[in-house]
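Please predict the structure of the following assembly.
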Amino acid sequence: MLEHLDWGKRNRMRHIIREDGRVLMLAIDHGYFMGPTTGMEIPSTSIAPLLPYVDALMLSPGILKTQVSADLSNIAWVLRASGCNSILDEDIDNESLILTALEAIKMNASAIAVSIYVGADHQHQTLKNLAVAIADASQYNLPVLGVTAVGKKLKDKREKRYLALASRIAAEFGADMVKTYYCEGFEEVVAKTPVPIVVAGGPKLDTYKDVLELTYQSIQCGAVGVDMGRNIWQSDYPAAIIQGVRAIIHENYSVKEALDLVESLQTEENRRQPLFAETKEDIEASKIH
Ligand code: 5RP
């Protein structure tokens, strides 16, 4: 799957998608438009127990520089390169680029991530962001992750026809990986997208079984892994659920085996300690995309 890539790009992709062809990417970039999201108020504290299980972190440049140790050597960074909006806007698709490829290279990023909002008011602008970022990144053999974002208005678009359209457009532009949502018939989205796909977790699901099913089905349908955030770090036992997700991705666990593992890890030590009062407004705000 990576054979056709130039040496530098292939090597960077290999830091993300590991030797078995799979990846567990932890998404913690939500603050770029959501601010201090519940569960990610102090990123360094939230990610500390999770890092041993992570292959790649997807995050914003400012959080990498202030919250992650430069001495960490076994985790890849996928840096968010689009933004310029917030949850206070009617919708969040009015994005521009916030990071150059050169800046990303200086931070030793393995890739940059750019969101596209296909079908939204700012479709053209966000697609242009992706095109510009790919042209910029290709100067350095820096891979680009195309993120098929939905936002408030496109929330009901998590179905295969729409996701295949958005994912395919990202791949046609030259994105090296695509991040999209899982849906019924997801194998069709994967088949029609000629680059590796990682699946977003989306807003917090009701049970750990749901999270593990999502992971399992995504892999069965051909995704190379997940790029999951809230369903890990907003859960009561983040260090437990991440190990279940990892076991499915890298050890081919069944949902039942992974759930048994997660349940066995629900110890006091692994329990998330909320650092601040979690208000209804905060929880609601973190569900908008
Ligand atoms: C925002 C993003 C997030 O990283 C993404 O939504 C993944 O996190 P989650 O699993 O919480 O949905 O790309 O556009």
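The two ends are 30 Å apart (CA to CA). The chain has one domain: 7-285.
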